[in-house]
Structure formats: C-alpha cells, structure tokens
Amino acid sequence: MLPQTMWLKKSVEEQLHSLKANTGINPNISSRIAFFRSIESGFMFDKTQDYKLSGYQKMDKFTWLGKTQQVTELLLKQRYPEFSDKELQMAWAAHVEDGFSGIRRLDNLQRLIQVL
Predict the structure, then answer these.
(1) In the chain, what is the greatest distance between 2 CA atoms, to the nearest angstrom?
(2) What share of the chain is helix, strand, coil (3-state, %, to 5)?
(3) How far is Cα 82 from Cα 104, in angstroms, rounded to an integer?
(4) Roughly what angle, to the nearest 10 degrees, separates helices 10-23 and 27-41?
(5) Under a CB-based contact definition with an 8 Å cutoff, are residues 105 and 56 in contact?
(6) pLDDT tens-digit map of 37-61
(7) What InterPro entries does this protein's entry cite (predicted)?
(8) How far is CA 51 from the centre of its chain?
(9) CB–CB of 90/51 below 8 Å?
C-alpha cells in the first residue's frame, strides 16, 4: 500500500496552493478531487517515465487522503497490481497532477463546483 509519508511534485504543490488562494479549498481536498478526476478519465501512469517527486510539503497519507484512503489504495492496487509501495505513491502523485490539469486555473469556488 501507500507509504505513510507522501508528497507531490513541487509544481503541483504550488498549483494546489494557488487554487486554495482562489477557492479556499485545502490542498489535500483538491488533490483528492484531482485524483478521482484522473481515475475517471482513464489516465494510466507509466512507471518507465522519469517521474520525480520534488515537493516540500510532506504529509502523512491520512492527511492527504482522509476518508478516501481505502478507496484510493484499492483503486491504485487494482490498476497497478505489480507496483511497489513507492511506485504506487508515484502513480498517486501522477494521477493528482493529471486530474489537476482541468481545475488548476479556476478562480473561484463557484466555477470549481460547476466543473465538478
């Protein structure tokens, strides 16, 4: 399963903080939204890519995932059954980045709700 401490790419973290400034939604909540948007879109993470997790905001997985922890881990294990824990963490981060691409430029909460 996912490691106890998780983080994202620095660029994604910065975008999450920018969205928080615009909408008031905390980065851990918007990352959950982004993850599930990516899963629904059919995105697949390719572990042969050089995907570096360069973020500085390390949080425990319960903070990142909250009550979606079990569902998130099950979806990742179902989609990537051969991945190690570290590879699953990279896949989660890549899904957050992918799903966030459609919501990162929203400038208020009402527009975010309309998109969802």
Answers:
(1) 40
(2) 60, 5, 35
(3) 31
(4) 110
(5) no
(6) 999 999 999 998 888 888 887 888 9
(7) DNA_S_DndE (IPR014969), DndE_sf (IPR038472)
(8) 14
(9) yes
**Res. 100: pLDDT tops 60:** yes
List domains and CATH numbers for the chain.
5-42+58-115 (1.10.1220.160)
Instruction: Output 83 or 19, whichever has higher pLDDT.
Output: 83
Q: What are the pLDDT digits (tens) for 84-94?
A: 999 999 999 99
Residue 50's φ and ψ, nearest 5 degrees, are: -90, 90
Q: pLDDT value at position 76? A: 97
* Number of residues assigned to the chain: 116
Residue 13 CB neighbours (<10 A): 18
